[in-house]
Amino acid sequence: MTPAAHPNPHPASAIADSRWNLEKPDVSEEEKLTAVADTTCKWASGLVAAWFSADAELQRAVIRDNRERFDALAASLRQRLERASRLLSEHEGRQVG
Q1: Rounded to whole angstroms, how far apart are CA atoms 61 and 78?
Q2: Is 57 left (phi over 0), alpha (psi -120 to 50) or beta?
Q3: What is the spatial distance between Cα 47 and Cα 42, in angstroms, rounded to a whole number?
């Protein structure tokens, strides 16, 4: 963010800046400008893509290492959706239109 005159040394520095009161509803013009510069910098530097890639790989590893668990969750979800669909169909068939 240095090119935008925001000397934040770390990607989390802007949001952690003590000047911002994240609880108040009003956002100052300075905070808006800093947020835009922060977002622009994160995209332009490739940080967002790198974070996405690293996070996706971690998630793929968790899925790969827990295949049976995720298969069981998927099967459970399919069963619940099928049951809900069946119950809705039965209920609709009973309604007097």
Answers
A1: 23
A2: alpha
A3: 5
- CA-to-CA distance for 86 and 81, rounded, in angstroms? 8
Element housing 54 (H / E): helix 47-65
pLDDT digits (tens, 9 = 90+) for 39-57: 999 999 999 999 999 999 9
Do 20 and 31 form a contact (C-beta atoms < 8 A)? yes
d(CA 48, CA 42): 6
Alpha carbon distance, N-terminus to C-terminus of the chain: 63
Single pTM value for the model: 0.56
C-alpha dihedral sign at 18, 21, 27, 28 = negative
